[in-house]
Predict the structure.
Amino acid sequence: MQRKFTNFNSWTVTAAVIMLLLFLPNLTIVTGIFTPTNENWEHMKEFVLSSFIKTSLILISATAILTITIGLSLAWLIAQYQFPLRNFLKWALILPLSIPPFIGAYTYHGIVNYTGIIQSTLRDHFGLNLSPAFFDIMNLPGAIFIYTMFLYPYVYTITRIFLSQQSASLIESARMLGKGPWRTFFQVVIPISRVSIIGGASLVVLEVLNDYGVVKYYGIQTFTTAIFQTWFGLGDIESSIKLAASLMGFVILILMIEKILRGRRQYSYSTTKVRPLPLIRLNGWRAGIATAYGLLILSLGFFVPIAQLIDWMILTIGTIPMGEFLTYVKNSVLVAGISATAIIVFALIVGNFSRLVHGRIAKLLPKLTILGYSIPGAVIAVAVVTAFIALDRFLVPLYRLIGMETTLFLSVSLVMLISAYIIRFFAIGYNSIESGYDKIGTDFRDASRLLGVGLTKTFFKIDVPMLKGAIISGFILVFIDILKEIPLTLILRPFNFDTLSTKAFQYASDEKIMEASQASLLIVGISALAIVIFYKFLEKEPN
C-alpha cells in the first residue's frame, strides 16, 4: 500500500507544483544579492545599514526579554496557583493578541498625547501642566512597550499549556528537597520550559521584524521601513531587493540562534503516571497581588485600548459613509476568505502527499514551503512583485494575441496579493492540517484502499470528514492573520483597493486617529471572537 517517491501520480504532481510555486518567489531575493549595485545601495551600506541593524537588534532583544518575563510569570501563576479570577484570566490573557500592534500604537499615542485623556485630566482636574515630552511614546522605548503588551500572549499561551500538562512529580520533588517557590521556579520550571519559552519568543521576534505599522507610525528606522522608503520613495527596486536579502539573512541568523538556544536537552517522564500540577491556593495579600498583576497586564494589553477605541468610535460614528465602510469590510473578507480557503486546500494536498509518499525528499519539501512564515512580509512582497513582473513580461505575447494593450496584468491584480498571502501564511494552515493527519492516522485510509476505493475518493469520503476540526481551526487562524496584515497589503494591493487594516493605518498616518477607530474595532472584534472560539475549541487542560 505504501507509495514510493518515484510513483508520480496525480497527487504527487499536484503537490509538487504547489510546493514549487510556494517556494520559487523567494529565490528572486537570493538572486538579487548578485545583481550590480547602484549609488543608493552604496550610500545605504555606508551610512545607514548599520543603524537599521542596531535598531532592529534593540527592538527584538528588549521585546523578547520583556515578553518572556511577562508571559512566563503569568503562565506560572495560572498553571500553579488558585486565586480570584484565575479561570477568567486563564483565557482572557490571550485577548491582546487580537489587537494588531499598529492599532495599539496609535491608540496609546492618542491616550498619552497633549489632547489625550491622561494629560487633559491632569490639567483640568489637578492643575498639572507637565511637559508633553514626558508623555512622548513615539520612540524606541514606546515601540518596545507596544510590542510587549500585544505580543506577550505568544509566550504566555505556549508556556502555560506546557506547564499545565507537566508531571507534578518534578515540582513536588524539588519541594521535598527543600527548595522554596523562587528556587523551584528558577532552577526547575525555567529549565524544563526552555523549549516552550524559546518557541514563543521566536514568534515574537519574527512578528517584530515583520511589523511595519508601529515603526512607520512612530518614525523608527528599521529594515522594513527602509524597504518601503527605497521602493516607493526612491523608486529603486534593486536596492529594495538587496535590503530584503539582508533582512532575510538576518532572519536566518535569528532562526539559527533559536535552534542553538533550544539545544538538544529534553525532559521526559520516567513513569506513565503523569498528572498535571495541583493548584496551590493563594490567600490574603498574595492572592490580591496575583489577581492585580493579571488584571494590570490584561488592562494594558486589551481593556485600555478597547475603551479608547470605543470612545473614539462614539465621537466619529457616521463620519465615514456606510457604503464606503462596507466596501472595506467586503474587501477584507474577500481576500482573507479566498486566501484562507486556498491555503487550506493546498495544505490538504501537500499534507496528503507527505503521508502518501515516503522518503527524505518527500518529507523535506513540505518543510521548505512553510519557511514563508519566518520571512517578513516586506521581503515576500518584494519577491512576489519581482516574480510577477517577470511572469507578465513572459506572457506579453499571449496578451498581444488576445488583444490586451497592457503588459502588466497579473502584477496589478488581486492575484498577486492573494498569492503573497498564501506564501506568507501557508505554514499556519499546513501545521493545523498536518497535526490533523497525524491524529487520524492511516488505518481508515488503508481500509478504504483495500476495499478498492481510489485515492481521490478515499480522500473526500474518509480523510476530509475526519479532518473537519483541523480544517476549521486552520481556516480561523489564517483568516485572522490575513485580516490584520499590513506590509503585504500596502505594497501589493491593486489601485484604489483598501481593506480594514490598510484604511485604519492610513487614517492613523494622516492623524485621523479617531476615524481609524471604526475599522480597528471591527478587526479587533472579529479577531477576538475567533481567538476565543479557537481557544475553547482546542482547550483540553483541567481547571
User: Anything to note?
Assistant: Residues 18 and 346 are 7 Å apart (CA to CA). The chain has 25 helices and four strands. The radius of gyration is 25 Å. Residues 1-8, 268-272 have pLDDT under 50 and may be disordered.
